[in-house]
Every structure is written in C-alpha cells, then in structure tokens.
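Exercise: predict the fold of this chain.
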Amino acid sequence: MQTRSSRRLANKRNAANTSSSKDVKSTRSKSPATTKRRASTSKANPKAAAKEAEKAKPTLTPRQWAALNPKTKHYEFGGPLGAFAMVTCLPLLVLLFAFGCDSTGYEPLTRGYRFISDLVQFKFDLDMLISMLTSWNPTAFFCFIIFSAQLVTFTMSLPGEEIQGTELRDGSKLTYRLNGLSVLQTSMTMILMTSKSQGLYFPIWVADNFRHFAVASLFIAFLVSIIAYLSSFRGQKLLALGGNTGNTIYDFMIGRELNPRINTFDVKYFTELRPGLIAWFFLNICMAIKQYSTLQRLTNSMILVVLFQAFYILDALWNEASILSTMDITTDGFGFMLAFGNFCWVPMMYSLQARYLSDFPLDLPYWLVAVVITLEVGGYYIFRASNSQKDSFRQKPDDPKNKDLEYITTRSGSRLLTSGWWGKARHINYLGDWMMSIAWCLPCGFSSVIPWFYCIYFAILLIHRERRDDAKCRDKYGKDWDRYCEKVPYRIVPGVY
C-alpha cells in the first residue's frame, strides 16, 4: 500500500521519465517549484543536496548522447602508433628498472640489452630462464592486491567532506569525498598493527621483493584499464572528447569514458590520489628501514629524500580538492595512461631515489644539504603559492587579496590572469614542481645517472603537458588566447622558456 508521500515521489519520477525535449539544454531545465525545493534542501543539508543533484542527472535521448560524445578526430601522443608504444614500452621500462637495478649496480638499459641480445641469438641458459620463473614470489603479488583492495575499502567507508566537481557536458555535477589523509593514516595504522610483532622484517621484505611488487602493479594496471575500456561501451556513458576515435588501441590508452563510477565510487578520482601516492610513501619508508638495518643509521641524503617526498605526498592529499579542476579530471578519459601511471609508474619509478640510496648509501656535505633544502623550499613555495593564487581567483574572485590582479576576459566568459604569479609565466607552477624534482635527485650524487631519471623524465612530461594545454586553450579561446600570450609570453621559466 502506497503512502501519500510515496505516491507523490512516484508521480515525480514518472513525470521526469515521460518528459521530452528537443535539445540538451531543454532537458536540463527545471521547474520553479523543483528549483525552490532544491534550494531549500541545499541550505538545510548541503551533502544531501549534492547527492540529490547527482541522482537527478537528465535522461537524454540517443541522439543527444551522440551530440555530447562526438567522434574524436585529433590524435595526441603520436596517434595509434604512439599509443601502442606507450602500452608496450613503458611497462618494459618499469620491468627494466625493477630487475636491472640492485646493490651490484644500476644498469637497467645495459642489462636489458644484454638479456634481449642473448635471447635473439639463442645465447641463453635454459636453467637460468627456469630459475627466473620459479623465483616468482606470489606473496608479493597478493600483498599488493590486498593493499589496493584496502585502499578502495577505506576510500568508500571513511568519512570526509563531500564537494561537487565542475559541471559536466550533460549538465550534471559529480560529488567527491575528500578523505585522502584519513585513508593514508588508516592504512599506516593497519600495517603497523599487523606487522608490529615482526620488528623490521616486513618493511625489509618489501624492499627486497620490490621487483615482484612492480610486476603485481603492472598486472593491476592492465586489469583496471581493460575493465574500464570494456565498461565504457555499456549503457549511456559520458566519453572524453579526446578518447572516442574508434581506434581500439588509442582509445584504450588515452581513456574512453570520462568519469567511470561504481555507484558513488569514482574510479578515476580514486586512482589519481590513492594507490600511487600512498604506495610511493610506504615504499620510501621500506627503503629507509632497509638502509637503517644495514648501517644502523640513516644517511642525511636518505632523510632528505624521504622527508621531501613524504611532504609532497601529504600536501597533495591535504589539497586533494584542487585536483578536481585539473586536466586529468575535467578533460582526460580514464584508460591505460592514468591507470598505469598511478598504479605502477608513480610508486615504482618515483621511489627510485630512496631505492638507490638503500643500495648505495651517501652522506652529503653540509653545503650541498643547504643547496638541496633551498631548491626544495623555493620550488614548493612557487608551486603552492601560484596554485593557491589561481584557485583563490577562480573560487573567490571578490576576495580583497585578488582585487589588484589583472586579467583578460575571453568571449566565453573565462578570465585569464595576466599578473601576479601567472603574469610571469603561463605555467609558473611547473617551474616549482621541477625545482623540487632536482632537490629529490641531487642527494643521490653523480655516480649514476639512473637516480636522475625522474628529473629528466619530469622535465619532458611538464613541457609536453604545457604544449597539450596550450593547444586546448588555443582551440577553446581562439584569438583571446593569442592576446593572452602576448601579455604573458613565457611558458614555464620566466625570461627563458
């Protein structure tokens, strides 16, 4: 038997489902009564209002969905050939660094070349190949899966502030729960509680089995990427404008669906801020404990690297709301690029400095310590101050501290800063980011170029990302972007580039 309120709710739903419209904008329109009810709900309970708005996504016709998801005609990253290279070569690079670096030497490329050369020329020992297979440690594989599953569980269950992201092309706004620091803290507590009776055995075991964890992270990255790609064809999904080419390998790599979700669990948002950063944090600690077990102390270089990178990770989780306005969330689809980058590349490649110092301990002279600290502090100040200024200008344009900032208004209504930090360079925050990368690599010295891989790779990544952003903005703003570039001519480094 239906109550009066349940009948009213059913009538509302039937009315919503039977309403038709000629275009997307008319589908998004709301009656004054509905708007009034939602406004009152928003004042009474902002979280409930956010969830109600998310559930009230407009029902669009197939024709309207086709208009929202046009075919992608422009390729990035070298098109299908470049996508194939990324899907094959980057995982091989991770394996080379995992298996080609140890306490006997950091020569991943040389060892990899020798191994492949021997295979091609049939100059290999069969017993050696069999021993490689039998030495596989399944415990490390299951540990990484359990670790990832715990992060998912904590992300879904732990409380946190819930905020809405930017408006999507279909008129909806997704709700995100900010609990990254709570997830890290809970994960750390669980690991300490389960391994406290073992002393230093567990973190040393993790460090010694790093290569097996690298293989496990690759497996998870491919599994998540395949599931995300296949699920993007089920039902009505909002696709990324850059990932709907129809080419399987390219769409798989770049990401086809914009915001894949399982109920309210946002897969892309979770992947961006949880597995990569938190695994990187724990791997660094394991490498430091391994060095301590060998020397009975920590070198100043290891202390600097672990502290700097831990601070970077904690800062990212503390300011996790800022990621909602980045290209990764608003523009890029979720595919192999993001899944591999965060499940595998970040923890396994970004922990390279701590790993190197655990195998080759190094104490820095005091003057070099001062240089490293100066680079880190200066880089962080530029990175955080510039990003904070941009976020404040976007979120609180009427704030008194923003009143003296100069900007130009585009035809689309967007405002582009031409003074302050953003008057010095169009991506001045990238400069601070790169300065910090130097501060992380410099403590490893100059005996090997391998620990400097991150600094070199990161420079290439930032330049490429700046070029991508420039192309998108030029396409979006047209002549207004040319006018903006005249006022802010430098891309990343003021006076240089």
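Check your answer against the key: The radius of gyration is 25 Å.
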